[in-house]
Amino acid sequence: MSGIIKSSIARKVSMGLSALFLLIFLLQHLIVNFSSVLSAEMFNEFSHFMGTNPLVQFVLQPILIFGVVFHFVMGFILEIRNNRARDVKYVQYKGSANSSWMSRNMIYSGIVILAFLGLHFYDFWFPEIGYKYIHFLPEDPNRYYGELVEKFHDPIRVILYCLAFVFLALHLLHGFSSSFQSVGFNNKYSPAVHKTGKVYAILIPLGFVFIALFHYFNSL
Ligand code: HEM
């Protein structure tokens, strides 16, 4: 991907754009999943719609998966390039300028989120793809709630999920305002974006923690 996107500015902007897209996805994902706390019927309705709507399935979902992969691959490329720049004396100034938009802990929190996504896809996404597009099982609009709560019976999984959400908060604490900066958003509203970023970075992961714990304690 680095070969395709040659200039470091283009890499930075594309990283910011993919981050903004994922920030919107995360909010949407929290809203849909939070409905499982409020009502099983509402969650089933949302999930059935998302799971069967052709626009969501064949346009938005591939864009999302591309966005996730792009963000991770680009994150690694930027990390490697920043490290290399730090090692070479004559570009040291440039290197430290770059590292201010992506502090070192972004790569570590990112790796934890990547590991979480591996588990999360194993839990939900792969079975879903298998159900619909490999085994072609008949659609049951009421199956989603049961499939969701079943996963949160296991305390180990709940702990792993909640740990990952803490790292997600760390990633977002820097990442939210950084993504705005990377796409060139730098004006009198920047302090407000910064504050909104802090609120988002705490509330969204907290919402996911709440969902996981709610279903765990509900299953006891
Ligand atoms: C308690 C928290 C969460 C629950 C209950 C949950 C639930 C789900 C479910 C049920 C699916 C399958 C959707 C489908 O294809 O039918 C899914 C997919 C997915 N989740 Fe989560 N999720 C949670 C947290 C997260 C977090 C924190 C992230 C990102 C860091 C995330 C990223 C994704 C992605 C990328 C997909 C695949 C795309 C999609 O089909 O929507 N999820 N999740």
UniProtKB/TrEMBL annotation:
<protein>
    <submittedName>
        <fullName>Succinate dehydrogenase</fullName>
    </submittedName>
</protein>
<keyword id="KW-0812">Transmembrane</keyword>
<feature type="transmembrane region" description="Helical">
    <location>
        <begin position="158"/>
        <end position="176"/>
    </location>
</feature>
<dbReference type="InterPro" id="IPR011138">
    <property type="entry name" value="Cytochrome_b-558"/>
</dbReference>
<dbReference type="GO" id="GO:0016020">
    <property type="term" value="C:membrane"/>
</dbReference>
<feature type="transmembrane region" description="Helical">
    <location>
        <begin position="55"/>
        <end position="80"/>
    </location>
</feature>
<feature type="transmembrane region" description="Helical">
    <location>
        <begin position="101"/>
        <end position="122"/>
    </location>
</feature>
<dbReference type="InterPro" id="IPR034804">
    <property type="entry name" value="SQR/QFR_C/D"/>
</dbReference>
<feature type="transmembrane region" description="Helical">
    <location>
        <begin position="197"/>
        <end position="217"/>
    </location>
</feature>
<keyword id="KW-1133">Transmembrane helix</keyword>
<keyword id="KW-0472">Membrane</keyword>
